Amino acid sequence: MIAESLNMSVGSVFTIMTEDLKKKKLCARFVPHTLTTEQKEHRIASSEDLIAAADEDPNFLKTIVTGDESWCPEYDPETKRQSLEWTSLGKGRPMKVRASKS
Prior knowledge:
Layout: H1 2-6, H2 10-20, E1 23-26, E2 29-31, H3 37-56, E3 85-88, E4 95-97
Parallel strand pairs: 2-4
Antiparallel strand pairs: 1-3
């Protein structure tokens, strides 16, 4: 894609990217989803409330019923190879949110 847009050979572009610019291609690391600051704060507050309730009553945890109300199979049309991105040396792996089929 870069080679085509610059009208250069793939090998020349690769050499420039890796040797001159010190870039390398990394696959993105998939994360289930990203949370907003508000969502993170809500999770912390909820967890603190549960811990406080468990401290007050040792049987509290036995009263909790959990479940998953929806099934969302993972759906990711992008292949691992398609997620490759050029990154600078020392920079971490890029992250992509794993999409789910709705």
